[in-house]
UniProtKB/TrEMBL annotation:
A Gene Ontology molecular function term of the record: transcription cis-regulatory region binding
Protein name: TetR/AcrR family transcriptional regulator
Statement: the UniProt record of this protein carries the keyword Transcription: yes
Domain HTH tetR-type residues, every copy: 26-86
Residue spans binding DNA: 49-68
InterPro entries: Homeodomain-like_sf, HTH-type_TetR-like_transc_reg, HTH_TetR, Tet_transcr_reg_TetR-rel_C_sf
Keywords in alphabetical order: DNA-binding, Transcription, Transcription regulation
Highest taxon above the source species: Bacteria
Amino acid sequence: MLQTITSPFLYADVLLAQSEGMAKGERTRARIMKSTSEILNETGPLDLRVTDVCERAGISNGTFYIYFTDRVGLLEDLLTGFVGFLQDSMREASRQEPEGPIRAATEAYYELFRLNRGMMRCLIHHMDSFPGAKQVFHTLNAAWVEAVVSSVRMRLKRDGSEGAVAPDELTRRAYALGGMVDQYLSSLFLSEDPGLIAVSGDREAVLDTLTLIWTRGMAK
């Protein structure tokens, strides 16, 4: 029976779907990681227990240790893979909407954050606990910033304003704006700030706001 993907941005479903047709060991490993991602939506990484993961995945504790050395090793592998998934998803969204790549990437990030809250919590609030994933996440940020800065510089050149804003200034703006978007989504989906939730019921309006932050913030 083929695994149904409820959303292309839901990492747990994508993991399981990708394991279809693979060896039994790969399917078991994917099931363990899927179960872990689901549990992280309910509890923080520091409270994650191998026993709970095994129960959710329908395996024995002994089977778990065939694939992972411990809880930390499991989380490190899961988060590192998720960061790559984040990057690929945002790039694909941008490529599919060449006339509006910033909004497309922003919408993808919004959905990735919303549907994978537990893993995003790990990356934003517990990053120092997972050095491997931390390095990959920093690399993702750097690549995204580089892409944004390159796009803005091309636009400035087309407008005859090449050199109007120094590259270092554009880079600082991109990092700052990325932090603002992360803070907004973190307050909305992780800490669930009542005041923010009250004005964020309209998804399209939220995407307009976040896109505006990027476009206005990177303007000269």
